[in-house]
Write a structure and sequence with these properties.
2 copies of one chain form a homodimer. By secondary structure, chain A is an alpha/beta fold. Chain A has 12 helices and 11 strands. In chain A, helix 3 packs parallel to helix 4.
């Protein structure tokens, strides 16, 4: 394996891409990148094509960090300029990425990625080297994911301070529909319903409304690219939420009671806090084992993380 | 007017009542109180009846700080032990309080109140003297609200570091349904829908889910008392949210687009931030003016606040 200390080429230098570049540099990696907007940093190449040419020369790991609608065009450039490079991405959905790579660059050694970190501000200036510290970072772990691509993507995540969550693209997309895309949609609904109450209502808004609408400070284009790109799983999550909200409405109208809704919400929040406060039981996984990916996916399903890698040995940690 | 520096008697010493007691003491007010649970503080009388007897002796302002379901019983004790005292409350709905006071203590000199501050933790230990600093604190401003009761309630709010929002009970209840009770219900729906995604989903949850479900850390009993006590206005708000979420669902299923939902949410969030960042234009209101309450209500409707009082002169501030 030669992936260790491979240079990192980041295409797209918004909040996430810009933070990946800084975080990888912090870990001592050689980094460079490009974006379709001017970025005031000496590590930025003049064009995407120039960055990819350099990636090909230096055998860099190429990281796609553009919004989903721009992925196809960037993949076309990768196929032209750096077709043999190891490839990963930090885009918020994974099945559409796998499909796009299969379409544009079927020979790619590719493992998808998704760091679960963000803030409402966007763009290069909002990024920071510590954005991913301690955060989960999904690395797609399909049956046919090339091992060298998986290692390179996982190594990048760990170098950036994150913990790797191995799972399939399908499971990832279903999960983020529930814990990322649905929260954005509910925040939009909440913000608009509150603002309909006029200045008095907004003037009275305290923590519950402020927190519940915070992500609506994000640029709409970014939210739309993320949510619309995960249409099927998001529809399932919205239907689930509509069912629960409708049931609460019916119960409030008929008996006046909301106990089952509120108690379920409370239990769920405690489950989140319990998972975060749980101890961790570490164990090694041998990447050369033919069952390694299955073990890794089971780790992800159970809420576990990969904490570090040492050669062929991956150290996983399960909540305990 | 003799309300200045009147002692404050707080009945109910949970997060809010306990914070009112500490904040009023910080302002130099004489304070005491009682609760139906043991509270380790020397300012606490052994029983509610004893506290109310003392309130009657010292002509204190009595502050009801118990959950809505307990209000009737406390009002019964007030009627028995301190019927002539000025009365306010810090309960999260206002029309049901007006009705309860009219039923139990029709002669009361009463002005309802509601500080818009909180945190997920509850109980005496979670309270603090600075909980209300800069927060809006509604003082119900009905046609028939006694002026001395209004002044006493507003003075308490200002002494506690809050800013007074004058409005009617009806407008208050409609507003808080949208910016406090609906956020709790949506947080419950979001938490449960996320947890249905299992440990993988909870493990991936980042800021949007964490923030959107934070208030579900609150004890369910408190959320239920608050939401169920505002049934009619909350039904209107839930119907509005259901309509918006259903429209988003329909649009996502048919065209794949969520632009109108997300853009409306973004605009609403910007309206909130604009209101908070707006300058303030101060002007005086003479409480002895027969139109004073109408002016005060207009101030509240426009998102304004009362910043201080000096004798009969109230200083209002409009967003500018």
């Amino acid at each position: 394996m030669t992936s260790v200390r491979r240079p990192v080429c980041v295409i797209g230098l918004g909040l996430i891409g810009g933070s990946v570049l800084r975080a990888a540099a912090r870990a001592g990696r050689e980094v460079f990148g490009a974006a379709d907007v001017a970025v005031p940093d000496q590590r930025v190449e003049p064009t995407v094509a120039a960055a990819l040419d350099r990636a090909a020369r230096e055998d860099a790991l190429v990281v796609l960090a553009v919004p989903l609608p721009a992925v196809d065009e960037v993949l076309r450039l990768v196929a032209e300029h750096a077709p043999a490079c190891l490839l990963t991405d930090v885009v918020s959905v994974k099945e559409p990425l796998i499909e796009a790579v299969a379409r544009r660059l079927p020979s790619a050694r590719y493992a998808g990625g998704h760091p679960m970190a963000g803030r409402s501000a966007s763009g290069w200036a909002a990024g920071s080297a510590d954005l991913f510290d301690g955060a989960p970072w999904v690395v797609a772990t399909e049956e046919d994911t090339p091992r060298d691509a998986w290692r390179a993507a996982a190594e990048l995540a760990l170098d950036c301070g994150a913990q790797v969550v191995p799972t399939t693209a399908r499971e990832h997309d279903a999960a983020v529909a529930r814990i990322s895309h649905l929260p954005h949609l509910l925040a939009a609904v909440l913000a608009a319903t509150g603002a309909d109450g006029g200045s008095l209502a907004l003037s009275l808004a305290a923590g519950s409304f402020t927190d519940g609408t915070r992500v609506m400070g994000t640029r709409p284009e970014l939210v739309l690219a993320m949510c619309e790109g995960n249409r099927g799983p998001l529809l399932d999550a919205v239907d689930d939420a509509l069912g629960r909200l409708g049931a609460a409405r019916g119960s409030l109208a008929s008996t006046g009671g909301l106990a089952s809704t509120v108690r379920a919400g409370h239990e769920a929040r405690l489950a989140l806090e319990d998972l975060r406060n749980a101890g961790r039981e570490e164990f090694p996984i041998d990447l050369s084992d033919p069952e390694a990916f299955e073990t890794l996916r089971d780790l992800g399903t159970a809420g576990g993380r990969v904490l570090r890698m040492d050669g062929d040995t991956v150290i996983g940690a399960l909540p305990a």
